[in-house]
Structure formats: C-alpha cells, structure tokens
Amino acid sequence: MDQIKQRMNALRIEADESASKAEEYKAKLKTLETENTQKEQEITSLTHKNQVLEAEVEKLESSVKTYKDEATGGAAASSQVEAMQRKIQVLEEEAEESDRTIRELNEKLRQTDVKSGHFERKVQALEQARDQWETKYEEMAKKYADTKKDLDEFAAELGNI
Fold it and tell me: Is Membrane there in the keyword field (predicted)?
C-alpha cells in the first residue's frame, strides 16, 4: 500500500505538474494567438500599404514617362526660348536706343520752343514797329497831300498874279 500511495502521490504530483504545464501552455497559446492576430493585422496593413505604394509607383512611372516625353519636347522648346530671349534682348536694345532718341528729340523740341518763343516776341515787336511806321507813313502821306495841295494852291495864286 505504501507503494500504491507513493504511486498515487507520484501520479498526483505528475498530474499537478501536467496541469501546471497545461495552464502555462494555455497562457503561451493565448499569447501566441494574440501575437498571431497582431501579425495578421500587420500583414493586412502592410499588404494594403504595399498596394497603395504599387499604385503610387505606377503613377510615378507614368509621370516619369510623361516628363521624359515633355523633356524631349522641352529641348525644342528651350531652343525656341533661347531664340525668343535673343529677340527680347534685341528689342530691349532697340527700345533703349529709341528712348535715347526720344530724349534727344524732346530736348531739341524744348530748345526749338524756347527759340520759337523768342522769335514770336521779335515778330510781335517788329509788327508793332511796322504798325508805328505805317501810322507815321499815313500821317506823312496826309501831310504831303496837304502840303502839295497848299503848294498847288500857292502856285495857282502865283500863276494868277
């Protein structure tokens, strides 16, 4: 009986250890299942992220192709831009020359206006002098006519004597 008791005790100890290990394994299983769920969620998230990135890569590849095509066309456009820039530079130089000419012409016009004003004053003075001379001439012509009339009357009186 001792042997049976010992065997029972050994079986109880073994059963307790097995129960303890079973609890430990259940906890470990629960932890592993939680980790597995997290990993599956992470995989799902990464899969979605991967799909989004692949779509973005496709978009970017399409953009790169478009940009390459535009760059090819851009080379021709850049030569046109350079030609336009040269034209602009020539036009700017011509505009500067025109501005310079306009300033010179404005200065000459101002000088001409000053001279014109001076000559207008001279013309007015000469016209006034002419008017004075015409008035004097008319007065002298009248005096001449009066004197000639007097002389003719005097000569007629002398001829009657």
Answer: no
**CA max distance for the chain:** 217
Three-state helix/strand/coil letters over 65-98: HHHHHHHHHHHHHHHHHHHHHHHHHHHHHHHHHH
Nearest to 62 by CA among 74, 70, 73, 51: 70
Token code pair at residue 108: 């000459």
The three-class DSSP label of residue 34 is: helix
Amino acid at 52: V
The total number of residues shown for the chain amounts to 161
Specify the DSSP class assigned to residue 1: -
Distance CA 140, CA 133 (A): 10
pTM: 0.37
Question: pLDDT band at residue 16, thresholds of 50, 70 and 90?
Answer: confident
Tell me how far apart the alpha carbons of residues 10 and 89 are, in angstroms, rounded to a whole number. Answer: 107
